[in-house]
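Async update (no meeting this week)

Hi team, since we skipped the sync, here's where things stand on the single-chain job. The sequence we agreed to prioritize is pasted below, unchanged from the tracker. I ran it this morning and attached the output directly underneath so nobody has to dig for it. Comments welcome in thread, and please keep replies under the output.
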Amino acid sequence: MTGQPDAADMLTAFDAVVRANASLVRQLSARAGIHENALRALVLVSDTGYSSPTEVAGFLGLTSGAVTNMIDRMTSAELLERAPNPNDRRGSLLRLLPAGDAVVEDYRERYAAVLRRVDGAHGGDLLGVLDELATGLYGSAGDVLP
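Output:
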């Protein structure tokens, strides 16, 4: 392709990235023996150090009942644990156990390898592009509802 890509070309490329990401998440979650939403929840808990079930439900867009069932399965699989929430005696906080840490570490290593490769192939400015893309997407999401 010569010249600048048009918006349709960029959208097609972005859609391909979204599909490829979904494929990788599917494969990583299957390898770990968990649902894709459970993988996303483990990454969230890792990112925050702990999360409440309510935060996980909001992040994933799931009902509290669905998240409770998912957490029960991950607790049984020894991927995470519930701990008392010091700020809410009725609530709990979720913390990763070593097996959950290993799942998230595999996830991060695979993404990091791809991102390093792409960054190197395109002059080392991928971080700036991704930051700007995320900012733009968040801004556009904020404009959707009045």
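Quick observations from my side:
The chain has a mean pLDDT of 94.
The beta strands are 80-85, 88-96.
Reply here if anything looks off.
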